Amino acid sequence: MDIQTVGPNEFLSIDGPASIRVMNGRLYVLGVEYGSGDSFTVMRGRRIIAKSLNDSKIDVVLGPEGKIEKVDGNNEVIDVWDRALSAIPLRNSTIIILGAMDVGKTTVTTILVNKGVRENLRVGVIDGDPGQNDIGPPTTISASIATSFITHLTQLRNLRSVFVKTTSIEHVWNYVLDSISRLIDDLKHNYNADTIVINTDGWVSDSTAIKFKLEIVKRANASHIIVIKRNDEVDELLKELSSLARNVIVIPSPPNARIRDRDDRKIRREMGYSKYLMPSRELSINLRERPIINLPLFNGLKYDNYIISLIRRSLNLPIHYIEQWGNAAVAIGNVKEFQVRNLGDVNIAILPENWESGLLVALEDKNNYLLSLGILRKIYYNTGKAVVSVHESFNNENMIDHIRLGMIRVNDNYEEIEKVLYIGKVESLLSSQIILKR
Ligand SMILES: Nc1ncnc2c1ncn2[C@@H]1O[C@H](COP(=O)(O)OP(=O)(O)O)[C@@H](O)[C@H]1O
Ligand SMILES: [Mg+2]
Questions:
Q1: End-to-end alpha-carbon separation of the chain, Å?
Q2: What is the pLDDT of residues 321-367, one digit of tens each?
Q3: Which protein residue has the closest C-alpha to ligand 1 atom 25?
Q4: Which of 187, 350, 372, 425 has most Cβ atoms within 10 angstroms of its Cβ?
Q5: pLDDT interval class at 437 (50, 70, 90)
Q6: Which atom of ligand 1 is nearest to the CA of 129?
Q7: What's the pLDDT score for residue 434?
Q8: Residues 375, 376, 381, CA angle at the centre, nearest 5°?
């Protein structure tokens, strides 16, 4: 325990893990004024700037790596942000936050949540960053309703998640768009949100990223767009946004933000997977009843052994399972790598044996919402059953409508070991033949 005093208009930089209790005075933190008796926490790995509004006395408890120090307020963005964000009328608004990685998108989302809560609004929040999702698991777009003050989005209860198969939006951005639209709809109509705040991923630099971001703005029918500008990263995006005739608010990024490198992000995601999957138990799923929606094995045309041996011979590949849907087929064989071959007018996607082992999957309900993440362990081609590891507390088995394959492979420690891009290829091959439910 450590009691500190701060004068009016003094600024504190607090690195988590830390817990702060105001004994006297007032602190402004992320859109909230904390008075005597109030307390808040700063999570590990995060930095929060607090401003003392008068003579304050605070009680500080720091965890390992936690740190608190007074900083020069002249460089801080706290007041500039507050002015810009306070000008936004929150009720009936849809606000989108755009910017590159580590510029403060999640922090600005948090501030807007608090401002809404302060006005007694039910704030709908969508975390649209599948790489660093704070509301739901990694690989999802997740939504919540905030009704009390927070210092981190992780404090929000996850109401709905849509699994988008990977953490790299560039492979799945169309599906992400659909997912965000659905969640907005849901928050408005089923959860009575008074306002919607949408946090996005940090992919802003190339032309597809810009197209994707503009499309979110249009589909969400955003009333306000906040762009956090660090250097010239978002200039191109800003140019395009200016033609959309919406309220675009440009704010600077904080000068001393903690930058996470690729490894930090990966470790955080892996902690994310294990949080949702460990301790685990195994579930046996009958794929004839609960199919894999993006690779509906056991629902296609199967061959007898004679035909399989003919195909094996003409492809000159050791294939032991094959199933066909119209002009597309999927085969499993003793091949090193995924490949597509043609036989007559049939395109055959050939998957290596054990292709499924360690693949991240989603167990989804009939509306395509996530019930649970899972790890696919094994598919038994003779019985049509799959073994999937889920969190031991998962108890919505009866609600599983189907499985959706993801594009990430993890090992037993939930470390990402492969981006399985061929899942996307199989999907597009099949989608021309069978109507995949979305
Ligand atoms: N005003 C600030 N000054 C210093 N660091 C900040 C400030 N606001 C946020 N941070 C820290 O900067 C990092 C990146 O912020 P975050 O909101 O997660 O960015 P993004 O969502 O764009 O990746 C986080 O560790 C966060 O705690
Ligand atoms: Mg973020």
A1: 53
A2: 999 999 999 999 999 999 999 999 999 999 999 999 999 999 999 99
A3: 46
A4: 187
A5: very low
A6: 21
A7: 61
A8: 170
Q: Write out the DSSP string of 231-265.
A: SSTTHHHHHHHGGG-SEEEEEEPPTTPPPP-HHHH
pLDDT, tens digit (0-9, with 9 covering 90-100), for 372-402 = 999 999 999 999 999 999 999 999 999 999 9
Contact 340, 429 (CB under 8 A): yes
For 274-301, what is the mean pLDDT?
96
Select the CATH number that applies to the domain covering 2-72 from these four: 1.10.260.40, 2.60.120.1030, 3.40.50.150, 2.60.40.10: 2.60.120.1030
The set of protein residues with a Cβ atom below 6 angstroms from ligand 1 is 46-49, 77, 99, 101-107, 202, 254, 256-258
Task: State the fold for domain 78-259.
Answer: Rossmann fold (3.40.50)
Pocket perturbation via mutation, ligand 1, pick of 40, 46, 125 by most ligand atoms within 8 A of CB: 46
User: How confident is the model over 155-193, as pLDDT tens digits?
Assistant: 999 999 999 999 999 999 999 999 999 999 999 999 999
Domain chopping of the chain, boundaries = 2-72, 78-259, 275-431
Test site for ligand 1: of 14, 43, 47, most ligand atoms within 8 A of the Cβ: 47
Residue 278 phi, psi dihedral angles, 5° rounding: -120, 145
Pinpoint the alpha helices (H) of 278-373.
305-315
